[in-house]
Inverse folding.
DNA sequence: TACGGATATACCTATATAGGTATATATGGT
DNA sequence: ACCATATATACCTATATAGGTATATCCGTA
C-alpha cells in the first residue's frame, strides 16, 4: 500500500474520526451517523472512499453493513493506525466521539446488529439507531 | 497542533518527500530541487505550505534559506514523523531520494551552505547546487 | 549602485474533492 | 407484491489546491 494513499485517507476530518472509531471496534453506518452527527450521505461517501482504497472492509449483516479495519493490514497501515490511536487520546474531537460511541452502544445487547434493529417489537420507542 | 493539519501536510507526495528528507537533516531549497528533480517554484510553494503550518522552520544562511524540522515539535508531530521515517524505509521513492541526497551532499565540505556556494572561486565548474 | 543568484509570491488554470439533493438498490417484514 | 429501513450512488456546486509562468524580493559582490 502506498504511503501517500494512506495519508490521503487521513487528511479529512470525517474520515479521521471514522478510522479512529474503527480502531476501537467495527461499526455500522447508522452508528457513524449517530456518533459523528452527520448526514447519511456524507458518512456513506467517506466510507466508500476508504473502502475503495482498502483502509476498511465491510460485511453485510442483515440490512446493515458493518465496517471494520482489515484483519491483516499492511505494515504501513498498521503503524499509522497505531500512531493515530495514540495521537487521538489528546484531542477532544476524538475523545468526545468515543464517549458518544459508548453511549450509542449502551443500548446494544449482544451482537452489533442488535442496537440497530427496528425495535418496534422490542421497545417500540426509538428510531433505528441507538 | 491539530492532527488533521499534520495529515493535510502529509497527503501530498512532494511534501511527504520533503519531510522525509528533513527527518534526516536540514536542507536548503536548491538541495530539494536537485534531489526531487522539481522546479524551484514547486518546491518553494510546498515549503511555504509546511512553514505556514509549523511543520518546518527556516533560518537564513547568507543567500540561502535552510529548512529544518522544528527543534521541539509537539508530540503528535514527533510521533508522526517517527512513523513516517519508519514507513519510508520500504518505499522506493523515498530510498531513491535518500541516495540522491547523499550524492548531492557529497560535494559539501563542512557547513551546509558550502555546497551551494557560487563556487567560481573554489572550483569554477558547477552550478549553484551540487 | 548595478547585477546575478536564491527564494518567494501573484496570478492563472485544471483537477480533486467535499458536501448537498434526489434517487437507486438491497433487505426484512407484512 | 408492497413497504419501510439501511445504504449506495448519480449528479451538481463550491472550494481547495497543485502546478505552471512571470515577476518580485533579498542577499552578496563587483
Amino acid at each position: 500500500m502506498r504511503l501517500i494513499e494512506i495519508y490521503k485517507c487521513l487528511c479529512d476530518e470525517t474520515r479521521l474520526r471514522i478510522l479512529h472509531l474503527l480502531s476501537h471496534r467495527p461499526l455500522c453506518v447508522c452508528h457513524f451517523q449517530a456518533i459523528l452527527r452527520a448526514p447519511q450521505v456524507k458518512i456513506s461517501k467517506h466510507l466508500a472512499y476508504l473502502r475503495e482504497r482498502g483502509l476498511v472492509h465491510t460485511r453485510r449483516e442483515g440490512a446493515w453493513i458493518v465496517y471494520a479495519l482489515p484483519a491483516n493490514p499492511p505494515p504501513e497501515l498498521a503503524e499509522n493506525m497505531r500512531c493515530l490511536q495514540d495521537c487521538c487520546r489528546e484531542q477532544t474531537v476524538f475523545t468526545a466521539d468515543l464517549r458518544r460511541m459508548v453511549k450509542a452502544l449502551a443500548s446494544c445487547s449482544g451482537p452489533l446488529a442488535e442496537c440497530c434493529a427496528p425495535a418496534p417489537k422490542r421497545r417500540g420507542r426509538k428510531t433505528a439507531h441507538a
